[in-house]
Amino acid sequence: MKKHDQDYMKLQNRRTVFGIIKQQHPISRAAIAKQTGMSPTTVSRIVGELTELGYLVESEQVAAAGLGRKSTLIGLADGSVLSIGIELDRHFMSIGILDLQGNVICSDKRVRPAEEDLEETLRRIGAAIEELVRHHAIDRTRVVGIGIGLPGIVNNDKGGVVFSVQLGWKNVPLAERLKELTGYEVAVDNELKVRALAEHLKGAAIGSRRTALLGFGNGVGSALILEGEVYRGDMNSAGEIGHTTVDPNGMMCECGKAGCLQTYITIRSLLSEANQIRPIQTIEEVFEARQAGERWAIHLIDRALDYMAIAINNLVCMYNPDSVILSGELPDRFPGIHEEIEARCSSHFVWEPLRGSFRFHHSELSEWGVVIGSGLLSQNRFFQL
Amino acid sequence: MKKHDQDYMKLQNRRTVFGIIKQQHPISRAAIAKQTGMSPTTVSRIVGELTELGYLVESEQVAAAGLGRKSTLIGLADGSVLSIGIELDRHFMSIGILDLQGNVICSDKRVRPAEEDLEETLRRIGAAIEELVRHHAIDRTRVVGIGIGLPGIVNNDKGGVVFSVQLGWKNVPLAERLKELTGYEVAVDNELKVRALAEHLKGAAIGSRRTALLGFGNGVGSALILEGEVYRGDMNSAGEIGHTTVDPNGMMCECGKAGCLQTYITIRSLLSEANQIRPIQTIEEVFEARQAGERWAIHLIDRALDYMAIAINNLVCMYNPDSVILSGELPDRFPGIHEEIEARCSSHFVWEPLRGSFRFHHSELSEWGVVIGSGLLSQNRFFQL
Fold it and tell me: How far does the CA of residue B280 sit from the closest CA of chain A (Å)?
């Protein structure tokens, strides 16, 4: 066997072992060997290397079940590697520092003025990181990088924002600029893709092999995780369901097409239609009006829920996932709609042969999903996972 | 390194080498080594083994460019492995015998009465195979299996037809039954999935990394090939776009939902609506009426083309493919609609940011795509590719 092949295989084996430890720690060397089919010697070598690098610790010995023998378990040195996860949205910025397990060890959330320009946003990201690191006495040498999740189309290879309607950005070399500013490696991705990754690794969809996540809020979108990896498509824009056509005779969308899904279900669209009736500032008011039995509000929200169920049907027909996760501001702020959407799906909105084919999950990481996913993305880059 | 790992790697290397030879033959050992990063010794060993099994031949030496040296090229022993590919549809059955390169070396196409029952279909498949093998003096020992592509939801692992509206089948253990009858290993899959595979390996989308294929005909569906592999989803029913909802206020579909894509574009739906106007037997008559300027026919076909463009938009938003292939009876029988659909896509039916993101292809294998894909599927099973 050639050197090249052996090196590649060593790297692969190391990834495999580290991946298993991350998911199943504490775990014994023997269990790793059993799962991977690697020899105990290979496993021991890899564990030794990773321990030397400071990523693993041996936890105390425990008695193996019923046999009286003792087995040493391998655990993660949680704080040996840290990363910074950031969610950037039109109206806020969330930031967290994550350990190796994806735990948020400290965090901050700040309002972002909608008119804030790029330079100011960059400056404030830098300041927020600085403050968090100082305030919590974080060891800077352990921070391996920054991950950022945001709404829009992102070139995740280069870390550039192709465009983001919500942030008002077009062709922003975000990773490059932020690396200049902070010195850290920066990974950038679409918010729903990292959120789905987080739910897969730490949240609602652990163990799922084909996870589809939908986001309903100021925007609408989806993401697919296949066998643990984000499905990106050719330009990292797979899952852009907001502009799938769900009624060619429907309302005009800002994109120039008619009847795009987003015209029926985003908070902005709903508010814009509600304001045909009377001045309304927040989506809460619309839900209150619905609660109070106002017909226009009932129509507006019921129609939105219908289209959410349609979005789920269309996604399920195309991706055939085993799990569907509902996320975003709307289900987060109005948890009652989960049930209403699910009821629509199981009555007749989802094509009958696929009706029982997937598990329905609520987002578990809600407010921190994007921060966690972004931070984990940054760690994955560091470990070249 | 453990024996287990080495065995796995040997198998992987063998697959890689064989795959390259299949795609690029004739090719030199040196070129294979260069592409794979394997050592010349490893490549020679694998080539030797495959030659011994009869799958490869050394073609005559050719002068390496400009150097005066000679280089031996490796080619496929095309006829060393044969497989039988079958397309089963409501109204016909096509059958072909394929060589290692996916060339159809002999074939037959027969009408299938719509009311034909399962037993009769099985009997006739067996007879058709028998006749083809005899008539063309095929060496039976070289036939490694049968592949069948059909419309419907197929359990491709077990080779069972979960259900097929077109064939009127539900829970048919097709592979098992046909193996009993013929003695050959049988692989069964959805027709569009094998067609997409064929176009990827032998047709319009060679070299594409994310190929989406659409089928417009008696049914409507799609398939996605990711990095050379069929994306199946959890139940092998990914790509079932026929029941995506494209207008919740639209026509009732036989599935019980309203506004399913298939209600606007399948031949059956179009004929059913056309018959509201006057008795019409074939889709050709509808196209002729359109040509003659009859308003109802213009409306019906234009609307169908609109919805085909919508289907492409929705597919492109969700899969973000690099290639989109149009296939099926409608584009095959009315090649002019290709241009009309493409024009719709590039004017405003496809979301602007994705408009230039994919190449548009016509199906190249048309009538024989499913036969070729099914035959290749059977060979892939044999070689465990």
Answer: 28
Mutation pick from B320, B322, B324 vs chain A, by most beta carbons of A within 10 Å, is: B320
Neighbour order of strands in the sheet with A82-88: A104-111, A92-98, A82-88, A143-150, A186-190
Residue B214's closest chain A neighbor by CA? A318
Whether the pLDDT of residue B198 is over 50: the answer is yes
Q: What was the pLDDT predicted at B1?
A: 43
DSSP string covering A278-300: S----HHHHHHHHHTT-HHHHHH
Element (H, E) at B344: helix B336-344
Cβ within 8 Å, pair A239-B9? no
Domain B3-76 has CATH 1.10.10.10: yes
In this prediction, residue B58 has a pLDDT band, given cuts at 50, 70 and 90, of confident
Contacts of residue B177, Cβ cutoff 8 Å, sequence gap at least 6: B122
**Residue with the larger pLDDT of the pair B93 and A366:** B93
Dihedral angle computed from the Cα positions of residues A307, A309, A310 and A311, in that order, rounded to the nearest 10 degrees? 90
Would you state the pLDDT for residue B350? 97
Tokens of B203: 């047709």
On whether any CB of chain B is under 8 Å from the CB of A251, the answer is no
Instruction: Return the CATH class of domain A206-363.
Output: alpha beta
Verify whether the Cβ–Cβ distance A354 to B209 is below 8 Å.
no
Write down the H helix ranges in B231-277: 262-265, 267-274
Q: Tell me which CATH code domain B204-363 carries.
A: 3.30.420.40
B320 vs A240: CB contact, 8 Å cut-off?
yes
Q: How far is A38 from chain B (nearest CA, A)?
A: 6
| Domains in chain B: boundaries | 3-76, 80-195+369-383, 204-363
Give the angle subtended at the CA of B282 by the CAs of B213 and B305, to the nearest 5°: 40
The answer on pLDDT for A1 being more than 50 is: no
Residues from chain B that touch A352, judged by Cβ atoms under 8 A, are 255-256
Q: Chain A closest CA to B330's CA: distance in Å? A: 22
Does residue B49 sit in helix, strand or coil?
helix
| CA-closest candidate to residue A214, choices A298, A287, A305, A112 | A305
Mutation target to probe the A interface, by most A beta carbons within 10 A, among B312, B317, B360 is: B317
Task: Name residues 218-247 of chain A within 8 A of B (Cβ).
Answer: 222, 226, 231-247
- Asked if the domains at A80-195+369-383 and A206-363 fall in one CATH topology, the answer is yes
Instruction: Give the distance from residue A74's alpha carbon to the nearest chain B alpha carbon, in angstroms.
Output: 22
Interface test with B, best of A193, A227, A234, A236 (most B CBs within 10 A): A234
The answer, yes or no, to whether residue B68 has pLDDT greater than 80, is no
Q: Provide the CATH number for the domain formed by A80-195+369-383 in this structure.
A: 3.30.420.40
**What pLDDT score was predicted for residue B71?**
75
Name the closest residue on chain A to residue B261, using Cα atoms.
A246
Q: pLDDT tens across B94-134, in order? A: 999 999 989 999 999 999 998 899 999 999 999 999 999 99
How do residues B238-287 score in pLDDT, each as one tens digit? 999 999 999 999 999 999 999 999 999 999 999 999 999 999 999 999 99
